[in-house]
Write a structure and sequence with these properties.
Helix content: 25-40%
Strand order of the largest sheet: 7-6-5-4-8
Distance between the termini: 40 Å
Oligomer: single chain
């Protein structure tokens, strides 16, 4: 339904922008397929008035002109709807190029590519251009934000359209997924993983979900959001607390050599133990046990005893299924 409406709005906008004279509702109805299929006059009139209001909310300037035969006409003059010259600094251009790369695995890849081509045609240098700045050497590293999870696109559309969703989610310490009803607010990438924040209807609280733990399809639900959308959503802060980033002390772990590089990146000290193991001292905070479980047999908690017990409990819960 959302795609059909977007196509209808685009066709109406093209008709109003492409005409040299005002078009009556009768002429617009005969020119746009969705209006032809509207059925009754009342149905068409309601649809047309909604579409006209939606286009105006999107910023299209639509003029209403009284005709000689008392028929009202509509048009959108190009000079009234022309954008001002686009100027982007280097950081803004780089951000646009990086944002477009997110859609490489998504259905909107073509639209993103077309948008970049139009900006380049207008003379905008973007981060992906080889000749971004002929006077400056290029970095050998190119930033990328992958979006491989199948849940990414339906959740992105649900966030945009404010639609509740239903999906099966497997927690790190659970053997089986649980069904969640969520009102999604925002998607955010942190350390190579995508997360969605929103309102969990059953738990009646804000929750953050990692997309790679969503199993099966994300299904859209009817109806509006039941909880207000906050102005600021702390996705990264929440995930950091789960990963023990908000440290309240330190922990000692044994880590298999050449494994667990995310843990090594946060280590305060590293000592070789021999036999293929190293000892690390890492920050310890809320949620560290859930993060350590993900490394499986490559990690052994030495201390504190409370953290070791929490990790063992989580592993036993997974083993029991």
């Amino acid at each position: 339904m959302a795609i059909a409406k977007a196509e209808r709005l685009m066709n109406l906008a093209l008709c109003l922008l492409g005409t040299r004279r005002p078009l009556t509702k009768r002429e617009l109805r005969s020119s746009i397929e969705a209006y032809i299929e509207a059925g009754s006059d009342d149905s068409f009139n309601r649809m047309f008035e909604r579409d006209k209001d939606d286009l105006r909310e999107l910023g299209l300037v639509i003029e209403t002109v009284d005709g000689i035969d008392a028929d009202v006409g509509y048009l959108a003059r190009r000079d009234s709807n022309r954008l001002p010259p686009i100027t982007l600094d280097a950081e803004e251009a780089a951000a646009l190029g990086l944002a477009a790369k997110i859609w490489q695995q998504a259905r909107l890849a073509g639209a993103a590519s077309g948008a970049l081509q139009k900006l380049r045609a207008a003379g905008m240098p973007l981060a992906s251009d080889e000749d971004f700045d002929a006077g400056q050497p290029h970095s050998a590293l190119e930033p990328r934000i992958p979006a491989h999870e199948a849940a990414f696109e339906p959740l992105m559309l649900a966030c945009r359209d404010r639609r509740p969703v239903l999906f099966d989610y497997r927690k790190s310490n659970a053997a089986r997924p649980e069904q969640r009803q969520v009102e999604p607010w925002i998607l955010e990438c942190w350390r190579g993983h995508w997360y969605v924040a929103g309102w969990d209807r059953e738990r009646k609280a804000e929750r953050v979900f990692r997309l790679s733990r969503i199993t099966g399809k994300v299904r859209s639900r009817q109806g509006a959001f039941t909880a207000p959308v906050p102005d600021h959503v702390t996705v990264r802060e929440t995930v950091e607390s789960w990963a023990g980033e908000t440290a309240t002390g330190t922990a000692r772990i044994k880590l298999r050599a050449e494994h667990g590089y995310p843990l090594r990146a946060r280590a305060l000290t590293v000592r070789e133990l021999g036999d293929g193991w190293d000892e690390l001292e890492i920050p310890n905070g809320h949620g560290l046990d859930a993060w350590l479980v993900e490394f499986g047999p490559d990690v052994v908690v030495l201390e504190p005893a409370e953290l070791r017990a929490d990790v063992v409990d989580r592993l036993r819960a997974v083993a029991k299924g």
